[in-house]
Sequence to fold (246 residues):
Amino acid sequence: LLTASENSKVALYPEGEVELVDQYSITLSDSTSLNLLMIKGLEMIPRYLWMKNNEMVASISGNLHIVREDFKAFRKELQSLQGTYEDEYLFKIAKELSNKIDKVIIKNVNVFTPEGTIVNNQDVFIEGKKIKSIKPSKGKVLNGTAQVIDGTGKTLLPGMFDMHTHNTKFRGLLHLAGGITSVRDMANNKQLKQLSAQFDNNEIIGPNIVIFCGIIDGSGPFANQRNVVDNLEEGLAEIQSYKDLN
Fold:
């Protein structure tokens, strides 16, 4: 329906809309031609579908890989190719939404304190990553080099901390949208350190990851595709690899 739609959109029941945002013509290593569709509206993150002659041959979303039998040998190639387009999309969002601001004053805001109380009508001065001062608002902002945010009628509170997460490059933006600025990752793959650095550098939007935990799975049809091992020796090698990554 989406590929046949004149405006690349289809209405959903009982409400909503799904949109074919983009499609890419891609040639695999064996010269097979496929189309990769990027679809929005089915869930909170884009859905990517691999198509051949209007038939789906693969759907790769994080660690869930659904691949038609005759394309099984190309699963990792499809994942790598799709990852390139996912990164381009996320890098673009980060550039559009990120701001490099050294000094900020949140003016006339109500401040939630560690004691659980509210202190009304405060000016909060932030420089870099530190709160420099919290003072009663006097109606004027004296620091002319800082960006001023009007906090009138609003409450300022610390970013929330999620104690059990499994991060992906798409979930980072959802964490921040929900007010979560720090997380513990309780099981993930070896690419997590790279993803954390991308979050920290605003290459991809996401929270501060403070705890890193790895995961190892045995092979099989229901393996989660995170560091799959077939024997004890491979398992021990994976443990050492995690240790080397700290």
